[in-house]
């Protein structure tokens, strides 16, 4: 009996992830440094729309170590609902959606402010054969993720770093005890975010993991629809 190829060995999944990686390699390597340097010179922090425009040409895929970790988490946790802030071209969405497909159930809802990037991510998911497990909302995540269809089991934060905390606070009412939060690009995370997930009394157990350029990995200890851990 022949076993269907699934997971990260799926040729369609691998081909699309490789294409996104090549696009990232072809990007100007200083594009994000210039984006943050530009915003640093502004009298006020950039709005969500300004941040999206600064990053409009950057593919920004997750490091394969982080993507593989996300796949492992989804396979193990078997979440009904995964939520992502900062879809970009959809690499991380593909890792999660591949795991959901292999689990046989579940959905990931991503959010991307830039319409062109959101459309590109949808195309990548379709070509990978995973669009049935994913929905990409276009617009400000603080609005798009404010009304979700059920408790959130797993969160990936991988957008504009200054919005990590506002987005997390919007999601907190939907988190259950045992929900997991993966926050990418640890060296770039604002102190107010890491302080929030590390401070005793805020309902998290959090630690740094050396995957990619570093992630903050947080467990929600109290939440919606279940007893506190």
Helical residue percent? 40-55%
Shape: globular
Order of helices and strands: HHHHEHEHEHEHEHEE
Please summarize the sheet with the most strands: 7 strands, mixed
Q: Keywords, please?
A:
S-adenosyl-L-methionine, transferase, 7-stranded mixed β-sheet, alpha/beta, methyltransferase, 229 residues, 9 helices, Rossmann fold
Walkthrough of the structure:
The protein has 229 residues and is an alpha/beta fold. The chain has one domain (10-17, 58-220): Vaccinia Virus protein VP39 (Rossmann fold), CATH 3.40.50. It has 9 helices and 7 strands, in the order ααααβαβαβαβαβαββ. The protein has helices spanning 11-26, 31-40, 48-54, 64-77, 91-103, 115-127, 141-144, 164-171, 191-198, and strands spanning 81-85, 107-112, 134-138, 152-157, 175-184, 204-209, 215-220. It has a 7-stranded mixed beta sheet, sandwiched between helices. Keywords: Methyltransferase, S-adenosyl-L-methionine, Transferase. Pfam families: Methyltransf_24 (PF13578).
In summary, what is this structure?
This is Methyltransferase. The protein has 229 residues and is an alpha/beta fold.
Please write out the topology:
Blueprint: H1 11-26, H2 31-40, H3 48-54, H4 64-77, E1 81-85, H5 91-103, E2 107-112, H6 115-127, E3 134-138, H7 141-144, E4 152-157, H8 164-171, E5 175-184, H9 191-198, E6 204-209, E7 215-220
Parallel strand pairs: 1-2, 1-4, 2-3, 4-5
Antiparallel strand pairs: 5-7, 6-7
Helix pairs in contact: 1-5, 4-5
């Amino acid at each position: 009996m022949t076993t269907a190829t699934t997971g990260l060995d799926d040729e369609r999944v691998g081909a699309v992830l490789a294409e996104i990686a090549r696009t990232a390699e072809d990007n100007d390597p200083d594009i994000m440094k210039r984006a943050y340097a530009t915003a640093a010179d502004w009298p006020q922090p950039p709005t969500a729309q300004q941040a999206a425009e600064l990053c409009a040409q950057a593919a920004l895929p997750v490091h394969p170590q982080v993507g593989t970790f996300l796949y492992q988490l989804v396979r193990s946790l078997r979440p009904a609902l995964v939520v992502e802030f900062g879809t970009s071209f959809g690499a991380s969405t593909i890792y999660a959606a591949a795991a959901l497909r292999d689990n046989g159930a579940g959905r990931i809802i991503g959010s991307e402010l830039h319409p062109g990037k959101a459309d590109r991510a949808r195309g990548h998911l379709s070509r990978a054969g995973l669009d049935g497990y994913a929905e990409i909302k276009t617009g400000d995540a603080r609005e798009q993720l404010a009304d979700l269809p059920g408790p959130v089991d797993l969160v990936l934060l991988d957008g504009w770093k200054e919005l990590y905390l506002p987005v997390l606070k919007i999601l907190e009412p939907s988190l259950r005890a045992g929900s997991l939060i993966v926050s990418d690009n640890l060296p770039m995370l604002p102190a107010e975010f890491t302080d929030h997930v590390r401070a005793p009394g805020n309902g998290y157990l959090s630690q740094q993991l050396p995957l990619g350029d570093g992630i903050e990995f947080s467990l929600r200890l109290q939440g919606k629809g279940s007893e506190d851990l």
